[in-house]
């Protein structure tokens, strides 16, 4: 995971949160306060990524079926793509779980289908 912000201790003993580009995101008296702000920044980064997946689902909702039906179709039409599809799906599904996405099946299915095509 790429961090988009970091914490630095200032000479006056305070802690400052910076964006990856070096912009000041706030100065705090304690490291705990700075960490709290850093978590907020990371939360909104993930929220933006989640909204992207939600849009993908809305766009492709009619065309996306279930994992099982996709496997069945691949076995009939393109059997050489079944194993790569399963690997890509597992990676995307695990990432969705670690990011706290409530229903990671749909984004994982879309991502796996895009990678094998």
Major β-sheet profile:
3 strands, antiparallel
Strand line-up in the sheet with most strands: 1-2-3
Shape by Cα distribution: rod-shaped
Distance between the termini: 25 Å
The number of distinct β-strands equals 3
Question: Overall mean pLDDT score?
Answer: 81
Specify the helix fraction band: 55-70%
Please tally the helical runs, counting DSSP H or I stretches of 4 or more residues: 4
What proportion strand? Answer: 5-15%
| Residue windows where pLDDT falls under 50 for at least 5 positions | none
State the order of secondary-structure elements, H for helix, E for strand: EEEHHHH
Radius of gyration: 20 Å
From the helix content, strand content and strand pairing, which structural class follows?
alpha+beta
What does it look like?
It is built from 4 helices and 3 strands; from the N terminus they run βββαααα. It has helices spanning 31-60, 67-77, 82-98, 105-116; strands spanning 5-9, 15-19, 24-28. It has a 3-stranded antiparallel β-sheet, covered by helices on one side. Strand 1 (5-9) and strand 2 form a beta hairpin. Helix 3 packs antiparallel against helix 4 (105-116). The longest helix has 30 residues, at 31-60.
């Amino acid at each position: 995971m790429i961090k988009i912000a970091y914490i630095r201790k200032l000479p006056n003993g305070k802690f400052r949160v910076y964006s990856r580009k070096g912009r000041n995101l706030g100065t705090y008296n304690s490291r705990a306060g700075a960490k709290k702000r850093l978590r907020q920044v990371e939360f909104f980064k993930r929220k933006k990524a989640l909204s992207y997946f939600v849009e993908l689902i809305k766009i492709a909702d009619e065309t996306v079926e279930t994992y099982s039906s996709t496997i069945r179709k691949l076995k009939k039409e393109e059997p050489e793509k079944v194993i790569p599809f399963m690997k890509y799906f597992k990676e995307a599904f695990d990432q969705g779980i670690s990011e706290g996405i409530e229903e990671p099946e749909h984004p994982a299915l879309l991502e796996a289908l895009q990678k094998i095509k």
